[in-house]
Structures are given as C-alpha cells and as structure tokens.
Specification:
268 residues; mainly alpha
Length: 268
C-alpha cells in the first residue's frame, strides 16, 4: 500500500495537469475578486459604467454589507459554489485511472498485489490530498488578493476553516469515487471527462430535477451536486449533518461499485 501511494504521489507531482488546473482556479478567483472590487468601490463602479459595462443592479446601492461576510463564505461564492473544483479533480482522477489501463500499469500492479482495493484507496487518497492543497492555495490566494486591493472581510475561527476543508473534501470524495467507478467501467478518457463535467457541474441534476418536479417530488438535496448548492453559512453542525450523510452514503455506493468492477478478470 505504501509503495503504491508513493508511486501515485510521484506521478501526480510530475504531471502538469494538477498545476494547470490549480492555476486556472486561482485566475478565476482573482477575476471574481476584481468583479467584487468593482461592486464594492463606487469610483470603480462608475468608471466601469463609463467604459460601457452593463450593471443590472442599481449602481447607487451600498454593497458594503458584503465585507461583513467571512473569508471562507466569500471564497465559496467566488469559485467553489459552481462545482469547478470538483470538475478539475474528477478529470485528474479520470486521467490517472485511464492512463493506468492504457499503459498496462494496472496489470503489473494486480499481478503483484492481490488486494486490489488498495489501488482504489491509493487513488482516492492522492486526490483528497490534492483537494486539500487546492483549498489551502485558494484561501492563501484570497488573503493575498485582499491585502493587495485593501478589502477586508470578516475573520473566521480556525474551527470554521477546518469544517470548511473537511466538508469540501467529503464532497470531493463522493464525486471522485463516482469518477473512479465511471473510469473503471468505461476505461475511456472521453467518457470519464464528459461525466466529470456533466455530473459535478450540475448538468445532469438540472435535467432530472424538473422531470421529478412534474411528479411532485425532488431529488436535489439527495444528490452530491445538491450538497454544493445547499452549502450554507455559518457552518453549524446541524446544517452540515444531513448533507454530510448524503455525501458519505454516495461515497460508499461508488466505492462499492468500483470494488466490484476492479475484480473483473480482464483487468488482471
């Protein structure tokens, strides 16, 4: 298990994809921050209007209340609320797994390691470590941005940061376990990447939910994507309990499916 983890971490370190995706997320964060800065500063807002930018809200409104939001709440609304973090991490998972099949790495590993579930756990651990690195990097990037432009948001206690990171990693675990199962089932980068975009991005739920509403029931809060959109602040245990249970349930389901798929004889 340790050897497999060491191999996976080394491959992740040498791959360019995680660095590119992290760069994109930070660029999106800075772009969103600039838009927020324009909204918060009346002189910048007026300058933007003079340059032809269309603002659909009353430009005379006072948006100073936004600075009362916590750092993590602002970060979540800027770049995490739409599922982009999970799309990138699911794509990384897809590329890792499909490359293993294409290169014959899985056959070599399974010929030496009889406990194939270790392969699944290794991949999920690597992706979760990447998730933590991404989140911490974006927290630091937001701090740097606020220091540069002079915006101050409400501070958050350390426990809220820990809850925030833990819950985002839990959601990521569910999505990446799903991506792992899809990749092992199809062994196709195209199919895996398509699923990584459609499912964490909410497209699938946005199609199914209206159909369910026609029959007077909803699946939204029972989905992984629903846990992203229903993420609420302040972060209290009572608010996090139900979505956390939903995430854990889906993670178990998808890991179980992956464990069944990995026992297929044509893998070895």
């Amino acid at each position: 298990m340790i050897s497999l983890l060491r191999i996976d971490f080394e491959r992740a370190r040498k791959s360019k994809t995680p660095y590119i995706f992290l760069g994109i997320l930070i660029l999106c964060l800075f772009f969103s921050g600039l838009m927020l800065l324009i909204v918060l500063k009346p002189e910048l807002r007026n300058a933007a209007l003079d340059l032809g930018m269309e603002i659909t809200i009353d430009d005379q409104l006072d948006f100073s209340f936004l600075t009362q939001k916590s750092n993590i709440e602002v970060l979540h609304s800027m770049v995490l609320d739409g599922g982009g973090l999970y799309i990138f991490l699911c794509i990384i998972m897809t590329l890792f797994v499909c490359n293993d099949f294409e290169s014959g790495f899985t056959k070599n590993i399974f010929s030496l390691e009889q406990k194939r579930w270790k392969y699944l756990i290794s991949k999920l651990i690597v992706i979760q470590v990447l998730c933590v690195i991404y989140i911490i990097a974006m927290i630091l990037a937001l701090f740097l941005f606020t220091q540069i432009v002079g915006i101050t948001f409400a501070s958050s206690p350390l426990m809220d940061y820990l809850k925030f990171i833990l819950f985002l990693c839990a959601i990521n675990g569910g999505f990446c376990a799903q991506s792992l199962a899809v990749s092992m089932l199809t062994r196709s980068k195209a199919a895996g990447i398509a699923a990584a975009i459609i499912i964490p991005g909410g497209l699938l739920v946005s199609i199914i939910e209206p159909l369910c509403n026609m029959f007077h029931f909803s699946i939204f809060k029972w989905t992984l994507y629903g846990t992203i959109k229903l993420f609420a602040f302040p972060l209290t245990s009572s608010q996090l309990l139900f979505p956390f249970l939903v995430v854990i349930a889906w993670t178990i389901v998808w890991i179980t499916i992956s464990a069944v798929l990995i026992q297929k004889k044509d893998i070895a």
